[in-house]
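Changelog-adjacent note: as of this version, every example in the card shows the full chain rather than a window. The one below runs 403 residues end to end.
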Amino acid sequence: MSHFQLALLLGMTVALGPLALDAYLPAFPEIASDYDVSLADVGLSLSAYVATLGLAQLVGGPLSDRYGRKLILFIGLTVFAVAAVMVAQAGSLSDLVGWRVLQGMGGAFCAVSVPAIVRDQVGGQEAARLFGLIGLIMFIAPAAAPSLGALMLAMGDWHWIFVLLAGYAFFLAVVLQFALFPRLKPRPPAVTPVKTLVTNYLLVLRHKTTMRFVGIQVLCFSTMMLFITHASFIYQEWFGLSNSAFSILFAANIGLMAVLNLINRPLLRRFSSVVLLRVQVILQCLALVGLVLVVFFHGPLWAVVAFIIAAVGCQGGIVPNNMANALEFFPHLGGTAAAMLGASQFTLAGTVSALSTTFAGDSLMPIVVSMLACSVGAVLLALGAPAAVAREKSLEQGEPAAA
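Full-length structure tokens:
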């Protein structure tokens, strides 16, 4: 299978998460009205989904190492689709949040399988390029998601958004069954009893360089999650934009992600992925410094939009470089390492976004300052990252931990 074909199929799969995350953002006001709750209360359904999406990966990753990527991925798709249908029928916000938690569990099993499959096939700079291509393809989903949501709202109501998500999960199952798994290199399942499972997670936790990249992923993703959680408030309530305008501005973030992702691929032939990661984390932080200043001085909408797009767009280069480096040391425990990365990313970012709904109030400043604080932490970790990750030894092979 060519890298493009593999990236296309895996990109379609990993796009399931962004679709479930972003498609119903334009519907927040309608959901709040239906259940007679605030936008912040509706935001809890997003935080609950993201947190579960992270925690459940701790289970899904080792299971995929033991029982194979295909079984765990298909279980995830099934659970995700069933939960999406139930969300569409939820009679209260508490019911909606509960089914979103189950949907997050299904999404976690899907999410953790994709980087593990990549690590099964390639490593090093090649993995970074493949992650970049996957990211480029999957950017279509978050770019289109709010527009799809707005279209569903125009045709009916917000319930149809989740019916659409269920249909996409079913479509993925059919495509992966016939186009992906028959063409992958087979890998023998690993035996992971409880003792070995704990040991494997300890191997990842004790690897200082890997955990540094996990920290970068958590903080950069938290920056983006803070924006996503409050996007409806920022654009629709604070600035009073329509659903269509909100969808266009949200898609602009993804557009810059795609551009930076495209630029990152040829740069990987001249620079190490660690160096590129460091530069893009710093650029994201500078964009957020600009955003805080604009908000502090009550700047215009276009300036706020410009800095948000610049900051969020940097994820297009940060994610593929960081994921390749974080998984580099564990070629035979790709599921476990991916689970640690994904669980940390989604759980901690989900917690940060949930907490932000309690202190943000009716002001932009707490939101943008929180985004900047996360970005500063990521810069500090990135500045200390080794310049040549691929040369370091892997703990999975029983060698000393990286400094």
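Structural remarks: The chain has one domain: 3-397.
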